Amino acid sequence: MSSRTRLEAVFKGEQPDRTPILGGWIACPEHICAITRKTLQEYWNDPIAASIAAYKALGTDGLIDIYVPKSTSDFRFVDNDDYWHKNEKLSVEQALTSIDEMPSPDAVAREFDFTASYDSFKAELQRYQLLCRDMLYMPAQWDNTPRIIWSELLGYESFFTVLGLAPDRVEKLIEISSVKAYQRNTLVARAVEEGLYPHAVLFGEDICNQRGLMISPDLVEQYYLPRLRYCLKPLLAVGCKPVWHSDGNVRPIVDMLIDAGIRGFQGFQTECGVTLEFFAGKRTSENEPLLIFGPLSVATELTKFTSEQVYRKVRESVEICRGNASLVVFTSNTVNPDVPLENIYAMYQAVLDE
Asked: What is the pTM of this model?
């Protein structure tokens, strides 16, 4: 099987020749250089090409992204200007005013130009797919769901205060984001129909911390889930499976998300009690096995296991999912410099040895 047919087989619930593996989140230029035998100068001359070469050498089937750190002195793609708490000094009054001044959801909908937006989206997909060659480029679409946590706009304190005092304002934000998310999902759906995007897409929002939901389950059910269900319609209509990025302890909302139309999950922070076994026993709203991108934790497994333990973890994961879930091996989050290079090799080798 080719990388694309292998991934598409799993996305459709079929049996591939071996378990596919996703890449794109190695956040360590030194690891990329070691894999490709390039210098750091060569990497920074063209980090995209160097990264693609590394994933190809490892045996990657598809790329969720092509991660490039923000600067030569760091491994992150954010800095102090990007943190979500940067507006922490925004007052509640200022937050309310900024929401009231936003256009209505109907006005936002009227501004959407499908043709122009799709032409741009299509061109970007084609450009990167050409670079990736036989690896499948399937970038995550982080803006393709409604948003319920608005701390990046209002600041944490102001957001949660507004949520408690004026939930109708937060509802307006969710409505606006759901209109935009629906529109973006129509672009993905068209790309799926034209064979430019596969039958699975990764997105999601960090609604949970390590203990569980950061907001009331009642608010999630009342304000968020109806909009999420609406946003997923274009994807489900073309058989594209929405896969939810699962940071934190997502167990309290898993059944809600499945009921809304989510068909798979990615992440698995075992340190929060979120295990592969928990997901493998569940079914979609159509009683089909879930699609799993995972389950290697970058905090408690890839960083702390020996390479032999990583290898064994992957092989055990394949067996857990056999007959219970459709598995694509991936990591819970970005692979930072604290992950030993030999553990990355072990993760891939465990798949290639099937």
From this structure: 0.94
